């Protein structure tokens, strides 16, 4: 058998494996209408996000922003093998790695599954509005000066929302030519200055970190703040995972799309920043890139270099607007299919497009862009996005630990799984040490976004109870514990305000430490307030349901059998042995009770 026959046999085995997994899926299946090229094109909206972030990081952290972009990408690549394994295990799902977490976290806490998906969606919403503003600004300045930027931005969001309402096939058809144009211009912008010797390599590799105060703690705080902001963009190439349930050959196309998207991220996050820093220096890159990048194309196209720069930025920003409406909206619809969000978010039209989730994403993006998408809003949304991309690495580890025999069409090495978990902890450290630099209102707003999904989760569970004929209020242990932890968070915030208000503002190191402590406590409160109560409540429900089944089933039958035996009715003296095992991964009192 030659290599072609082996390849064909392998592909048929993959198709059979995917078909088996699809048949086991309780979720609705989606038309498989795109390949790896379409998924990679849609994911360009994540791979190129350094373009709108590089100026802000340079302004805050100095030229050290360039290595920080590279570090953020390395952390993301470390998690990539685990993400591929997680997505390949559930090829019938859409919405990406955060939505797939529902399958891993359901045995522990449904609220945690809801948290990962909703946080992921919030992380993408500002991107949709911000990229619309940037592309609208370029179009306004160079082509339509009489049309206000805000109106242009709203129109761009509405146009791409309409494209997505026509289904993922049409979204991919629109994304592919834009992706080819964007990638070609990106390669030219990186290669032409190198070939024409316009790069000052000494300047390109000379890095300086701007710190809010002197000392090692100031340097660490500044670096972590920059890395925290980089986390908003560097892992975003994972957007290719949002469409595995709509790919023709899920395993093959999914792996290719993820790897191609990661390769494009290397171009945008490493090659382009280094070359541009060597050509222009840091100060010009903090401004409008459309007005700056013309010289990188000029040696090839002459005076048309400015037009090339404008369309390079515009096409890439179009991707940033298109992708959240296509990928992140499917995260909401998948959570609805899983019973974690209201049913309305899962409604689909005849093109299998989640029309309500798309419109909700567009409306939220428009609301954010009307605010101008300030840097504090991006920083707040980044808290939710980092939660959404860190939890999948934890989910991969949990599935390996508790379900080692589960079918895995793609299996990452154990060391790579550990690297992914390590990257998640680094993002956590960056959040604790860097988030505080954006101010207390930003921290509180980000925490509010993270908790918002829990409200919708409670609504869905209440409506499900009503539909089952149980409309009485559900006084759950989970609700009680979470309410208490929210009260703790409010008191902690009040204590933080009192403490900071009575500290001399000149003691910047002490103020920064107090802010770091508050962020750390807030993140732990989210974990304790959502995760632990969910685990405890689910475990007690399982034990209660098992006890109820035992009392009303086996023991009731046994009682009736004994009564029949005492009456001499031997034909009625029998009992069922219908025992249902309680699966619980908790090694504590609840675990022993379940056993």
Which structural traits does this protein have?
595 residues; mainly alpha; 22 helices; 74% helix; 0% strand; disordered N terminus
From the spread of the alpha carbons, the general shape counts as globular
| Strand/helix succession | HHHHHHHHHHHHHHHHHHHHHH
- Overall SS class: mainly alpha
SS element count, helices: 22
Give the N-terminus to C-terminus distance in angstroms: 52 Å
Question: In which range does the helix fraction lie?
Answer: over 70%
* Largest sheet geometry: none
Outline of the structure:
With about 600 residues, the chain is mainly α.
Please describe what this structure looks like.
The chain is mainly alpha-helical. Helix content is 74%, strand content 0%. The protein has 22 helices and no strands. The longest helix has 59 residues, at 508-566. Residues 1-26 have low confidence and may be disordered.
């Amino acid at each position: 058998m030659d290599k072609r026959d082996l390849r064909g046999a392998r592909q048929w085995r993959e198709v059979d494996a995917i078909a088996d997994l699809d048949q086991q899926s309780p979720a609705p299946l989606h038309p498989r209408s795109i390949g790896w090229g379409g998924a990679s094109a849609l994911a360009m909206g994540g791979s190129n996000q350094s373009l709108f972030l590089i100026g802000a990081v340079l302004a805050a952290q100095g030229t050290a922003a360039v290595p920080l972009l590279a570090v953020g990408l390395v952390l993301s690549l470390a998690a990539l093998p685990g993400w591929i394994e997680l997505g390949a295990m559930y090829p019938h799902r859409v919405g990406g790695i955060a939505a797939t977490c529902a399958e891993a976290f359901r045995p522990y806490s449904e609220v945690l599954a809801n948290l990962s998906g909703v946080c992921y969606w919030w992380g993408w919403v500002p991107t949709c509005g911000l990229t619309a503003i940037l592309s609208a600004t370029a179009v306004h300045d160079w082509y339509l000066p009489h049309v206000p930027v805000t109106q242009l931005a709203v129109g761009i969001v509405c146009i791409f929302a309409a494209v997505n309402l026509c289904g993922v096939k049409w979204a991919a058809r629109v994304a592919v030519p834009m992706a080819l144009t964007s990638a070609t211009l990106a390669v030219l912008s990186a290669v032409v200055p190198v070939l024409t010797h316009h790069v000052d390599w000494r300047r390109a590799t000379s890095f300086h970190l701007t710190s809010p105060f002197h000392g090692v703690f100031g340097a660490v705080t500044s670096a972590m703040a920059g890395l925290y902001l980089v986390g908003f963009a560097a892992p975003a190439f994972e957007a290719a995972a949002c469409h595995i349930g709509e790919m023709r050959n899920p395993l093959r196309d999914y792996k290719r799309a993820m790897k191609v998207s990661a390769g494009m991220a290397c171009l945008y996050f490493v090659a382009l920043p280094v070359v541009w820093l060597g050509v222009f220096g840091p100060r010009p890159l903090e401004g409008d890139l459309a007005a700056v990048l013309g010289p990188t194309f000029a040696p090839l196209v002459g005076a048309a270099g400015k037009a090339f720069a404008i369309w390079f930025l515009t096409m890439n920003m179009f991707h940033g607007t298109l992708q959240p409406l296509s990928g992140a909206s499917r995260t909401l619809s998948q959570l609805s299919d899983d019973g974690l969000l209201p049913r309305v978010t899962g409604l689909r039209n005849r093109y299998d497009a989640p029309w309500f989730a798309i419109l909700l994403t567009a409306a939220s993006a428009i609301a954010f862009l009307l605010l101008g998408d300030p840097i504090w809003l991006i920083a707040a949304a980044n808290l939710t996005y980092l939660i959404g991309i860190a939890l999948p690495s934890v989910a991969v580890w949990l599935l390996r630990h508790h379900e080692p025999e589960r079918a895995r069409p793609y299996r990452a090495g154990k060391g790579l799984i550990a690297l992914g978990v390590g990257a998640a902890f680094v993002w956590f450290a960056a959040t604790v040490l860097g988030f505080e630099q954006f101010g207390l209102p930003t921290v509180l707003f980000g925490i509010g976004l993270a908790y918002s999904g829990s409200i919708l989760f409670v609504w869905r569970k209440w409506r499900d109870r009503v539909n089952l004929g149980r409309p009485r209020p559900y006084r759950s242990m989970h609700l009680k514990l979470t309410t208490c932890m929210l009260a703790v968070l409010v008191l902690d915030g009040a204590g933080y305000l009192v403490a900071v208000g009575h500290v001399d503002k000149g003691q910047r190191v002490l103020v920064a430490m107090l802010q770091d402590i508050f962020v750390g406590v807030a993140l732990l409160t989210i974990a304790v307030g959502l995760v632990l109560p969910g685990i405890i409540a689910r475990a007690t429900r399982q034990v209660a349901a098992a006890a109820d089944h035992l009392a009303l089933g086996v023991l009731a039958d046994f009682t009736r059998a004994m009564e029949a035996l005492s009456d001499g009715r031997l034909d009625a003296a029998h009992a069922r042995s219908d025992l249902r095992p309680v699966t619980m991964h908790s090694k504590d009192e609840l675990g022993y009770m379940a056993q």
